[in-house]
């Protein structure tokens, strides 16, 4: 990565631009914030705050590195989860093959911070976006993207400039009622033939996304996931049999959100007479969570015997009011925490710097800036107490914060992480 660009972040003053940090004169920087000795539990940070546990973060990166090494898989974590170059550096240093993104705007962040390989797990069809890909590749970035129709290949060719390096594409295999992706074998094969025949385009393999498959019965969902991944595998095998992958110096098969990557590893292993790199795009494993992925992760479902993931995101707020029995109003809301899948999950309370598990309670509603905590534990709290919550779905957590404090197990501030959404 571009160490100069990262160094510039490390000396960026932590000032009024960044909520969750106190006013200080002079303002600290991520490089020296540890020296301030701030403690979340001692009331040094203005609340609310979304904190990132550095010990859990590092453990999760190490766990995924070990799992991928044991299963001959590569990880290209989805950067849209965090959009944090400082975290990309940690992930790439741990051996990640690429950083995945979904949009040109996200890809630009990666390129400007020197991510060497960028996988755009999406179609790009607008002239400005396609023009940027050519410029980025001329600047030294290795950019891959998806196509799901010959029209997408045509758009890519029309936007190419003289001197653009060849661009690598993966044919996206879709499913009925899914998002983008070729819906059947005929459409996938036509797309692959168009890409293989296009000058300046290299057909590099296939991609899919099994995360669209949901249901109440995990066994039924798993069977559907396996069937879909089998279709993705079969597509690559057809492409190889037809000689459409002959120009590729590396062949990739990519899928894998953060819930079913164990099935991707088990099922998506095409046999084409040459090596195939299996690329997982699991983005939320870097922080895990207390909700969605606590329920769905292969580590939580007992399918993986190596290591475990640890929730690394904690949302902290103060008790503002206890207007009636069994109710406490907390000072955080939709501006601060994810709520698209689960509401925040109360886990701890702190008073005068002393941390303890919280009793029976739940957050039952959020306003823009307030949370409604109900249950017997609400009567045990006092105005000014701190309540710490786990969150669900990291992808809608980071985007609410331009900077997150890194904290240790005692919730002392050890650093800071920028986000760029």
Provide structural commentary:
With 421 residues, this protein is α/β, with parallel strands linked by helices. The protein has two domains: 3-53 and 309-418, D-serine dehydratase-like domain (Lyase, Ornithine Decarboxylase, Chain A, domain 1), CATH 2.40.37.20; 78-282, Alanine racemase (TIM Barrel), CATH 3.20.20.10. It is built from ten helices and 18 strands. The strands form two sheets. Strands 1, 10, 11, 12, 13, 14, 15, 16, 17 and 18 form a ten-stranded mixed sheet that branches. Strands 2-9-8-7-6-5-4-3 form an eight-stranded parallel sheet. The longest helix is centred in the middle third of the chain and has 24 residues, at 218-241. It is globular. The relative contact order is 0.16.
Provide the descriptors you would attach to this structure in a database record.
single chain, 421 residues, alpha/beta, Lyase, Ornithine Decarboxylase, Chain A, domain 1, TIM Barrel, 2 domains, 10-stranded mixed sheet, 8-stranded parallel sheet, 10 helices, 27% helix, 23% strand, globular
The helix content is 25-40%
How many beta-strand runs? Answer: 18
Helices and strands, in order, run as HEHEHEHEHEHEHEHEHEHEEEEEEEEE
| Count of helical regions | 10
Q: Describe the biggest sheet?
A: 10 strands, mixed
Mean pLDDT: 96
Tell me, briefly, the overall form.
globular
Low-confidence stretches: none
**Category by helix and strand content:** alpha/beta
Distance between the termini: 19 Å
CATH class of the largest domain reads Alpha Beta
Might you state the CATH topology name of the largest domain? TIM Barrel
**CATH A-level architecture of the largest domain:** Alpha-Beta Barrel
Question: CATH superfamily of the largest domain, please?
Answer: Alanine racemase
Gyration radius, rounded: 23 Å
Proportion of residues in β-strands: 15-25%
Number of domains: 2
């Amino acid at each position: 990565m571009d160490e100069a660009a990262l160094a510039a972040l490390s000396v960026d003053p932590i000032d009024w631009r960044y909520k969750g940090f106190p006013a200080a004169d002079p303002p600290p920087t991520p490089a020296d914030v540890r020296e301030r000795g701030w403690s979340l539990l001692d009331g040094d940070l203005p609340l609310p705050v979304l904190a990132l546990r550095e010990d859990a973060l590092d453990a999760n990166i190490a766990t995924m590195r070990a799992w991928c090494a044991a299963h001959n898989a590569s990880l290209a974590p989805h950067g849209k989860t965090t959009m944090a170059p400082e975290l990309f550096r940690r992930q790439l240093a741990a051996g990640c093959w690429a950083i995945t993104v979904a949009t040109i705007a996200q890809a630009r962040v990666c390129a400007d911070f020197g991510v060497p390989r960028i996988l755009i797990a999406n179609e790009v069809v607008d002239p400005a976006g396609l023009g940027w890909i050519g410029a980025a590749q001329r600047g030294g970035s290795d950019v891959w993207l998806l196509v799901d129709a010959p029209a997408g290949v045509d758009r890519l060719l029309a936007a190419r400039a003289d001197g653009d390096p060849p661009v690598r594409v993966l044919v996206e295999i879709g499913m009925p009622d899914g998002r983008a992706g070729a819906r059947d074998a005929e459409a996938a094969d036509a797309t692959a033939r168009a890409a293989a025949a296009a000058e300046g385009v290299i057909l590099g393999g296939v991609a899919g996304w099994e995360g669209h498959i949901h249901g109440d019965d995990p066994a039924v969902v798993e069977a559907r996931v396996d069937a879909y991944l089998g279709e993705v595998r079969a597509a690559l095998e057809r492409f190889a049999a037809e000689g459409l992958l002959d120009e590729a110096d590396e062949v990739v098969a990519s899928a894998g959100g953060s819930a079913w990557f164990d099935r991707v590893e088990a099922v998506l292993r095409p046999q084409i007479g040459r090596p195939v790199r299996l690329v997982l795009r699991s983005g939320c494993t870097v922080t895990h969570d207390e909700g969605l992925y606590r329920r769905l992760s292969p580590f939580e479902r007992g399918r993986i015997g190596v290591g475990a993931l640890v929730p690394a995101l904690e949302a902290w707020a103060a008790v503002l009011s206890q207007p009636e029995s069994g109710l406490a109003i907390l000072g955080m809301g939709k501006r601060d925490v994810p709520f698209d899948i689960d509401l925040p999950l109360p886990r701890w309370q702190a008073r005068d710097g002393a941390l303890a598990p919280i009793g029976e309670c739940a957050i039952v509603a959020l306003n823009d800036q307030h949370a409604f905590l109900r249950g017997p534990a609400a009567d045990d709290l006092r105005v000014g107490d701190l309540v710490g919550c786990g969150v669900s779905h990291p992808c809608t957590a980071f985007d609410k914060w331009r900077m997150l404090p890194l904290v240790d197990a005692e919730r002392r501030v050890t650093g800071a992480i920028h986000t760029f959404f």
